[in-house]
Amino acid sequence: MSVRVRFAPSPTGYLHVGGARTALFNWLFARKHGGSFILRVEDTDEARNTDAAKQAIFDGLNWLGLDWDEGPGKGGKHAPYFQSERWGIYDAWFAKLVATGRVYQDDGAWRFRFERKPVTMRDLVCGEVTIDYRDEANTPDMVVKRTDGSYVFHFVNVVDDLEMGITHVIRGEDHLMNTPKHLQLIAALGGTPPHYAHIPLILNPDGSKMSKRDAGAAVDDYPRQGFLPGSVVNFIALLGWSPKTNEEIFTLAELVDRFALENVNRAPGRFDFDKCKWVNQQHLMLLSPADFTLAAQPFVAAAGLPVPANFAAVMAAVQDKVRLLGEVPPAVGFLLLDEFSYDGETVAKVRGNGAAKELLGDLAAGFNGISTWSADAAKEVLSATARAAGAKPGQLMFPLRVALSGRAHGPDLGDMLDLLGKDRCTARVRRFVAML
RNA sequence: GACCCGUUCGUCUAUCGGUUAGGACUCCAGAUUUUCAUUCUGGCAAGAAGGGUUCGACUCCCUUACGGGUCGCCA
């Protein structure tokens, strides 16, 4: 019997990292076992559902690379995959439930009568958990059909899992206490329950519950900032799951290979944005120069910067220095345009070096005299200029960096010299000298 | 409040009774880069508390504390 798992989001907002990780674990489990990953949209709450939210879910999953085998846009033998289109199915199952005598009317709504006994479940992550249903105050009979005739989550969720032949339900821990309810419903309906695995929730850095507004919460924010989908998948996989080795950087395919529900942790994890960015940097460095250039180009264009002939060389100069693609434009702006801003604090630092102005003046003259420009030739001139004034070459390098880029941090000085060329370097040093 | 799950460096984690408790992020230091960053090396930093069980406990059990979850005609 092959594995069938599902991701069943409710389209009431943007795709959340917690939801994305639930989807990821389901997807990994399906791929690992050669099973099917089903996307089912639980849009029964018409008042709160929006088309934009549905689209955000599809976009988010697509961006992350989590393709579904059955679901919206894909079809499948259990279509439709929107709960709002499955009323007939629910009516039929509800009739079945009524026939068992386990539901009764209450204020126009229908409640399911729980069996008053301890209910034990075997969770693939949490182990054996028993909830005592003799405590009626804690487990009141649940409404399955509302006064307005619509069905509540518990009922449609269970019916669809049964209908769609779901074998493993992998979901957030917030559903753990719902599971005995679902088990009782399934038993009443004469169905076979799936296996359950409840994964721990993702919290904010301060331990509070992560909401949509918190940094890192919305999946659609990641592409905007310049994360690679593989980085995000890698990072959220590590939040709550461990390969049990010291390795941390994985491709999607490697995650499929390593993933196992037994290695999912039970304690909730906190979201560490710094580490997420570090993971992205690792993935960025693994990209071929051509792929990095391709990935970075939209960010450069969006920043209004030109894309010159030596663009690939410019990208190569910063590939291993950025953590996000969004950091690329500010890092290369001075290489693509002659007009750029100078960082005040950094310029002040150069001014503090009394000899810098004169040395840079000499350097500009030296640059101008170079017949065949190259980074090495420019560095030789720099060394000679410094020594002639009784200074060390190193003392001139930082001022030169600032003269060329306006900032303290950036690519290797040699790369800058190469990329900018003789005329630009000379002109920029002269312009900077005038500023001092 | 009741019920459920959980608790190893600040954070993510390894450890399935015997380890100097390992790795990573962050931070700090040194080295390299004739420059800043990158990189490399090193360092700081942990078993919530108290009881048991055991020759021996981070690991098993109990209690307490703390954190999270659930108790809807939301999903």
Q: What is the secondary structure topology, with strand pairs?
A:
Elements: E1 4-7, H1 17-32, E2 36-39, H2 51-64, H3 87-99, E3 103-106, E4 109-112, E5 118-123, E6 127-132, E7 142-145, H4 153-163, E8 168-172, H5 179-188, E9 195-199, E10 202-203, H6 221-225, H7 229-238, H8 252-258, E11 269-270, H9 273-286, H10 289-302, H11 311-318, H12 328-336, H13 344-352, H14 356-368, H15 375-388, H16 393-405, H17 413-435
Parallel strand pairs: 1-2, 8-9, 10-11
Antiparallel strand pairs: 3-4, 4-7, 5-6
The chain binds one RNA strand of 75 nucleotides through strand 4, strand 6, strand 7, helix 4 and strand 11.
Describe this structure in words.
Helices cover 47% and strands 11% of the residues. The protein contains 17 helices and 11 strands. It has helices spanning 17-32, 51-64, 87-99, 153-163, 179-188, 221-225, 229-238, 252-258, 273-286, 289-302, 311-318, 328-336, 344-352, 356-368, 375-388, 393-405, 413-435, and strands at residues 4-7, 36-39, 103-106, 109-112, 118-123, 127-132, 142-145, 168-172, 195-199, 202-203, 269-270. A 3-stranded antiparallel β-sheet has the order 3-4-7. A two-stranded parallel sheet has the order 1-2. The protein is elongated and about 100 Å long. The model has no long low-confidence stretch (mean pLDDT 92). It binds one RNA strand of 75 nucleotides through strand 4, strand 6, strand 7, helix 4 and strand 11.
